[in-house]
Design goal:
Order of helices and strands: HHHHHHHHHEHEEHEEH
CATH class of the largest domain: Alpha Beta
Domain DUF7134: 5-154
Largest sheet: 5 strands, mixed
Distance between the termini: 72 Å
Domain Signal transduction histidine kinase subgroup 3 dimerisation and phosphoacceptor: 182-248
Protein name: histidine kinase
Number of strands: 5
Domain Histidine kinase/HSP90-like ATPase: 293-394
CATH topology of the largest domain: Heat Shock Protein 90
Catalytic activity: ATP + protein L-histidine = ADP + protein N-phospho-L-histidine
Radius of gyration: 43 Å
Strand order of the largest sheet: 1-2-3-5-4
Strand content: 5-15%
Helix content: 55-70%
Shape: rod-shaped
Oligomer: single chain
CATH superfamily of the largest domain: Histidine kinase-like ATPase, C-terminal domain
Number of helices: 12
């Protein structure tokens, strides 16, 4: 039964033809008391033909049926071929339903008014029984109500389907955005870990190569530092992979804090970078995500200072915690003439004006932006390079808020 219904829905003209045939057969059942059966059969056939086109040409079909209905009234008035109501009223009921459901309701109201006039004419001119008139008026009303209900239901289903389609498209878009954000996060984390360690190892390897014959002890120390840096990078990489597998993207490893910053500074000193470190405030009590952000900014900035600071690079790190934010400032000395400029170089002489084009500063800028902060990086008027990041603290983590909570 269901496949047949589906077939009729996909072939509306066939369904309308079947309905027209059924109403034609119903009209023929009243031929027993008809004085002019040929006229009745002709009218019923014409009505059925018009009804079969009700969804392909609803207005033409509707007014053709109305004209045939009026013609039946006139013919009955002239020849008086039947005591029953003139043929076509059931067809008119179906057409009123069709106009309300598929066309504008103003046209349907006009058609309903015309049908009311035809019913009154049939009552006054032919003296049709009041029961027949009331019956068909009731059918017209039921057809209107049914079509209005089904039209509202169809509109509701269409709207719901459209909203579901929009929701599905939005869900797919969010999934793509989430994948893209996750790829960016993984790339940023791996860059912070690998680039820092590899940069230090390259500098140490170059130094060991130069000192291998002239100063074997120094070369041996450099090789030990390369080994230690590699092991540390491997451990850091494992921690990062474990972090990336967690559900919370903002959760940092508890190791990040002042101790981790001190280890980064010591590693850079061992690699040949002269670093001064100043930390102010309770930095170990900041949220893990902020601690990780501070760690990565310092690590990347010192790596760039080591790579591009010349033969005797120097850098100064200042990390300060205030009530509402943590400020990180890393400044390195001017490069020697001919040294490779760092990535993301700003316009010379414009303080903190660099927009950046390399992945190092871009990665720091993205990380700080995720945390709701601001990062500036650029060359200084007197020479050198400075990175300054401000990472806001959640109000709940400030001392004032904690004291209020206590």
């Amino acid at each position: 039964m269901r496949p047949l219904t589906t077939w009729f829905r996909s072939h509306p003209f066939a369904a309308d033809g079947l309905l027209a045939a059924a109403l034609f057969a119903l009209e023929l059942t009243g031929l027993a008391g008809v004085g002019e059966p040929v006229v009745t059969v002709a009218l019923a056939l014409a009505l059925a033909t018009a009804l079969a086109w009700r969804r392909r040409a609803p207005l033409v079909s509707a007014w053709a049926i109305y004209a045939l209905l009026v013609l039946g009234i006139v013919a009955d008035r002239i020849v008086r071929f039947s005591d029953a109501p003139p043929p076509g009223q059931l067809f008119a009921v179906v057409m009123l339903y069709t106009l309300v459901l598929y066309r504008d309701r103003r046209l349907a109201a006009l058609y309903a008014a015309a049908l009311l006039v035809a019913e009154l004419a049939s009552r006054l001119v032919l003296g049709t029984d009041f029961v027949f008139t009331a019956f068909f008026l009731l059918l017209y009303l039921l057809a209107w109500i049914t079509a209005a209900y089904l039209g509202a239901r169809r509109a509701y289903i269409t709207e719901v389907s459209a909203r579901l389609a929009v929701a599905e498209a939005d869900r797919d878009r969010r999934a793509v955005d989430a994948v893209s954000a996750e790829r960016t996060r993984i790339a940023r984390e791996l860059h912070d870990v690998v680039a820092h360690a590899v940069s230090v190892m390259i500098v140490q390897a170059d130094g060991a190569g130069y000192a291998l014959r002239a100063d074997p002890d120094r070369a041996e120390a450099a090789l030990r530092n390369i080994s230690a840096t590699g092991r540390s990078a491997l451990a850091e990489l494992r921690r990062t992979v474990a972090l990336l597998r967690t559900d919370d993207a903002g959760t940092a490893h508890p190791e990040y804090g002042t101790a981790a910053l001190a280890r980064v500074v010591e590693m850079m000193r061992a690699a040949g970078l002269t670093v001064s470190m100043e930390m102010t405030g309770d930095l170990d009590a900041v949220p893990p995500s902020i601690a990780l952000g501070v760690h990565r900014v310092v690590q990347e900035s010192l790596t760039n200072a080591l790579r591009h600071g010349g033969d005797r690079p120097r850098a100064a790190v200042v990390v300060t915690r205030a009530d509402d934010a943590v400020t990180v400032s890393v400044t390195n000395t001017p490069r020697r003439p001919g040294a490779t400029p760092p990535p993301d170089t700003a316009v010379p002489g414009v303080e903190l004006a660099g927009s950046g084009s390399g992945f190092g500063v871009i990665g720091m800028r993205e990380r700080v932006a995720v945390l709701g902060g601001d990062l500036q990086a650029g060359s200084l008027p007197a020479g050198g390079w400075r990175v300054r990041a401000v990472l806001p603290l959640d109000p709940a983590d400030t001392p004032a808020q904690k004291s209020l909570g206590a």
